[in-house]
Amino acid sequence: MVGKHFDSKEDLNTKLNLVAINGKFEIKVKKSTRTLKEVVCVDEPNCLWRVRATKMPGGDFNACVNLTTRSCTCRVFDIDKIPCIHALAAAGLYRPQHTESYIYSLCSEYYTSDYWMLAYAETIYPVPPESQWHNIPEDVRAIKVVEPDVKMFRGRPRLTRFPSQGECIVKKYKCATCGQGGHNSKKCHNLAHPSDVRSST
């Protein structure tokens, strides 16, 4: 089921029934709306098989989550090994009383503090000055490291970074007349300071 897209609910139901027949287990619909369908195993306490499909703006039913194999059609759960938004929703429906602890158990062990400390368990030796380098092979000495070939574009170089995915950077405006934020001088309704008012005579 992971990685599949369906044009309609009927196609999804047909595939779910085939999966249940081939896997020799019985399924039941836990929730079904116009935009959501959740199917679980009948033996739910002992069987973690679960499918959660949502209707996306494009019209396809995707985002099928399998909590047993820790996978989702959006591929975030498979690649990053951290529950995506679809897996979080499925985990909340599967164990509503212990959602927080269950979500942590779905994360990869590589994100635990023990694995992070193991990465720095060995001694890291700093690189000595070049004057102390001895017995360097000739093929290494012959290598010349040059600057990277960077293509410079026209215009003023960009000083601000590109925002990451899901990050929203709000621009802060400041009025040149009153000095307050939230508007500019054209939409300013505050009176300017008397020292800023110039006489026209």
TrEMBL record:
Q: Which InterPro entries match?
A: Transposase_MuDR, Znf_CCHC, Znf_PMZ, Znf_SWIM
For molecular function, the Gene Ontology terms on record are: nucleic acid binding; zinc ion binding
- Coiled coil spans: none
Q: Does the keyword NAD apply?
A: no
Please give the superkingdom of this protein's source. Eukaryota
CCHC-type domain residues are 174-188
Which keywords, in A-to-Z order, does the entry hold? Metal-binding, Zinc, Zinc-finger
**Residue ranges occupied by any SWIM-type domain in the UniProt entry:** 61-95
Q: What is this protein called?
A: SWIM-type domain-containing protein
Q: Does the keyword RNA-binding apply?
A: no
Q: Which Pfam families match?
A: DBD_Tnp_Mut (PF03108), SWIM (PF04434)
